[in-house]
Specification:
The chain has 4 helices and no strands. The longest helix is centred in the C-terminal third of the chain and has 29 residues.
Length: about 130
């Protein structure tokens, strides 16, 4: 059982890291540690943003779950599910409120693309 947890957990950490890297590459200068709109800010809907509106948050969730599973730390899994994911949803909603005010097309994007996890894997088209 330990080997299975280690393999699954390691896969999730690597998969989450790949999503995170691609998400940052697609965001370019539109990324920050805090919630704000920059001058010249653009709405990014390509790459991983075709599938989820907040791939960086999703990737962190996946990596944390992967690490917790790899170490078979079930308390951490529970805390991620009960504390961390709701925190990411809260922060995501703050960002989405700002993005909705800045970009008229955001409401359509939001209807078609899942917040943290894909609604489906169909490509979002403007």
């Amino acid at each position: 059982m330990w080997v299975i947890c280690l393999l699954v957990g390691t896969f999730l950490v690597v998969f989450g890291a790949v999503i995170n890297i691609f998400g940052r590459l697609y965001l370019k200068g539109n990324w920050a540690n805090h919630v704000k709109i920059y001058e010249g800010h653009k709405l990014i809907t390509g790459g991983p943003y075709r599938f989820v509106r907040h791939p960086l948050y999703s990737s962190i969730i996946i990596m944390l779950l992967g690490g917790s599973i790899a170490y078979a730390n079930w308390l951490c899994v529970v805390l991620i599910l009960v504390v961390f994911i709701p925190s990411m949803v809260y922060r995501g909603k703050q960002e989405e409120e700002m993005l909705s005010k800045e970009f008229a097309e955001y409401s359509t994007y939001k209807q078609n693309v899942g917040m943290l996890f894909p609604k489906s894997f169909r490509r979002y088209n403007k």
